[in-house]
Amino acid sequence: MAEVLTAEAVRDELGGLAGWSQDPAGITRTVELASFPDAIGLVDRIAVTAEELDHHPDIDIRWRTVTFRCVTHSAGGVTRRDIELARRIDEIVGGTR
Ligand SMILES: C[C@H](O)[C@H](O)[C@H]1CNC2=NC(N)=NC(=O)C2=N1
User: Where does the secretion signal sit in this chain (predicted)?
Assistant: First the structure.
């Protein structure tokens, strides 16, 4: 099972993950798109990557605002898999706006 990172280790990683915040439930980034279809399109692209990684963000969609939370449910905290997923989400968000 993947090792849960300390809050300090997550904070160090987040230094390179601008736009993410940390709380006990995981690391979170909120993205506002131009429209609801754009928001769904972003989620669709991230779904493909999540399947590739076999690691899946918790996703909240409210009209054109999407919040991604990365936490490793089986480990009960944030692991390197979440940091990798967050990086991939950043790449996809960066490529769509
Ligand atoms: C078998 C498979 O690896 C697990 O069910 C995966 C799938 N995606 C997952 N995603 C996340 N975020 N946490 C998990 O514990 C998890 N488990």
Answer: none
State which ligand 1 atom lies nearest to the alpha carbon of 85.
12
Strand order in the sheet with 65-70: 21-23, 26-32, 65-70, 58-62
3-state secondary structure of 56: coil
d(CA 51, CA 76): 20
Please check whether residue 7 is in contact with residue 82, taking contact to mean a CB–CB distance below 8 angstroms: no
Domains and CATH numbers, the chain: 7-96 (3.30.1360.20)
1 in contact with ligand 1, CB cutoff 6 A? no
Question: Which of 95 and 70 is assigned the larger pLDDT?
Answer: 70
φ, ψ (nearest 5 deg) of residue 4: -75, 130
CA of 2 to the centre of ligand 1 (A): 11
